[in-house]
Design goal:
alpha/beta, two-stranded antiparallel sheet, 18 helices
Length: about 500
């Protein structure tokens, strides 16, 4: 029921804090150095110490400064339960750095900014030359009072009945309630946290990068604190008036059709597979008649794994496989192997790889707190369920989310959360032409809010353009100028998604 991140965002990151424990700081940190940053007297207290951000696969270690800002869980009860917001700052390389940092906002809802950044840090390297980059694990995610439901929720799987979903939701609430008021984790409260962190770090103005759900956070912050925002990069844009989830199945189907059309128009792909849409229909029909038993090597450890591969497993492969152009390059081959040779092992292996990579991305409780307060109550009553049912996702996710939200407590939402927004701030809006979650028309709708904005669509690319060719250069130039007017984006016109795999050896020569 969640809205997962792009495949380039891997599950977890580790923070290593340097040297011995700091005495007297309520920070859950290690480090003997004096604080590198502190709030002004009387302001929110945030002290940063030297730390390291480690890639989850130990591919890299990034030096940073880290700290925890203590805030009330319920802003209306300032003396009540307190939670810690984990903050990391990656300092600019230049000693003559610009005064306005870039704050990175992760997607989900339910993903954390610090682990997201570590896996894509290279895309921000040009920006970091001149600007600090600030990361805040939004309340309910990462290490900021995470609302994680535990192993039982992860094991529920794609075949869960409404009764099982309801039981799992109640169990999650029972586990979280002793340590959290789940109504206090909405976007309306999170943007107040962001403003506290800005104030504590002493920045007068900030730039925002938000991906997917993070674009909602960025736009709501802009609405609340317009004088503090210098510029925004919105990547995989959620328009302010949109309720996420109600058209997910239709958007996912349209993105898949785009991938198939691109394969058909590609000589090598068409020669290898003919009409990939026909293979897709054949596989769907075969699995609708009954799941197939598969035995494939597990993603780690070398052991084999035996399980049933049916429509629900296929849907997950198709949806998350279409998030990024790299995964999408495999889909025609995988479907053709299943349709023509009844070989479902490659699809099943991809299913295991994707579920392993995405299993810890989302804090389910925080996701529920946002979706159940900000999205589900705003779903249109006139949804075309027949059209949804005809897609590979069907109504399963929509119905599952509705079941969850009948049980999950609804938190406070600003009355203008979905109201029209208009701002003169410089905005760069990024979209993939084959985005299964926030399609280009979403950015088109959002662009009406920003008369000084620029909307870019990269044909054939998926959800989140951060790591697409030359995007690091475009973003750095945009931030340096503080304006989208006259921005040179010609390099994006030459960007092409990865060529389709015509065999297990890769694309055609």
């Amino acid at each position: 029921m969640s809205y997962p991140l792009p495949p380039h965002a891997t599950p977890t990151a580790h923070l290593k804090f340097t040297r011995s424990a700091l005495a007297g700081l309520a920070l859950c940190l290690l480090g003997a150095a004096a604080p590198l940053s502190a709030a002004a007297p009387g302001g929110p207290q945030l002290q940063l110490v030297a730390c390291e951000l480690e890639h989850p696969l130990r591919l890299s270690v990034l030096p940073a400064q880290c700290g925890v800002l203590t805030v009330p869980e319920n802003p209306k009860l300032p003396q009540g339960r307190q939670i810690g917001l984990h903050v990391a700052r990656v300092s600019a390389v230049s000693r003559r750095k610009q005064p306005d940092p870039l704050i990175v906002l992760a997607g989900g809802p339910g993903a954390a900014a610090i682990p997201f950044y570590v896996t894509v840090a290279g895309a921000f390297a040009r920006i970091q030359r001149e600007r600090d980059i600030v990361l805040i694990d939004q309340r309910g995610t990462g290490t900021s009072a995470p609302l994680e439901c535990g192993a039982d929720d992860d094991e529920l799987g794609e075949h869960a009945t409404p009764a099982q979903i309801a039981a799992s939701t109640r169990a999650c609430l029972a586990a979280l309630t002793p340590r959290a008021d789940v109504t206090q984790y909405t976007t309306s409260i999170a943007v107040q946290d962001l403003e506290r962190v800005r104030s504590a770090l002493g920045y007068q103005r900030i730039n925002l990068y938000g991906v997917s759900y993070g674009t909602r956070v960025a736009q709501l912050y802009l609405r609340r604190f317009p004088a503090r925002v210098r510029s925004m990069i919105l990547d995989g844009v959620v328009p302010v008036g949109a309720a996420l989830g109600q058209t997910s199945a239709l958007d996912a189907e349209a993105a898949l059709a785009d991938i198939f059309a691109r394969c058909t128009a590609d000589e090598a792909c068409h020669r290898a597979f003919g009409d990939p849409a026909a293979d897709y229909r054949s596989v769907r029909a075969a699995l609708a008649a009954g799941a197939v038993e598969v035995t494939v090597p597990a993603p780690a450890g070398g052991a084999t794994q035996h399980f049933s591969f049916g429509p629900e497993e296929l849907a997950l492969v198709l949806r998350l496989g279409s998030y990024g152009a790299d995964y999408a390059a495999l889909l025609p081959l995988l479907l053709h192997q299943a349709a023509s040779g009844h070989d479902y092992a490659p699809l099943a292996s991809q299913y295991l790889l994707i579920t392993r990579a995405s299993g810890e991305l989302i804090a389910t409780g925080m996701h529920n707190s946002v979706a159940c307060a900000e999205d589900v109550p705003f779903f249109a009553a006139s949804l075309d369920r027949a059209a949804l049912a005809a897609t590979y996702l069907g109504t399963v996710q929509l119905d599952g989310l509705t079941t969850v939200c009948r049980i999950w407590p609804h938190g406070p939402v600003d009355p203008d959360l979905h109201a029209p927004l208009r701002s003169d701030v410089a905005a760069l809006l990024l979209s993939g032409g084959a985005d299964p979650v926030t399609p280009p028309q979403s950015a088109s709708a959002a662009a009406r809010s920003y008369p000084h904005g620029l909307s870019l669509v990269l044909p054939g690319f998926g959800h989140g353009q951060l790591t697409d060719p030359c995007m690091d250069r475009v973003m750095a130039q945009f931030l340096a100028r503080g304006s989208a007017t006259g921005l040179d984006v010609s390099c994006t016109q030459r960007a092409r998604p990865l060529a389709f795999f015509t065999s297990v050896n890769g694309p055609a020569p």
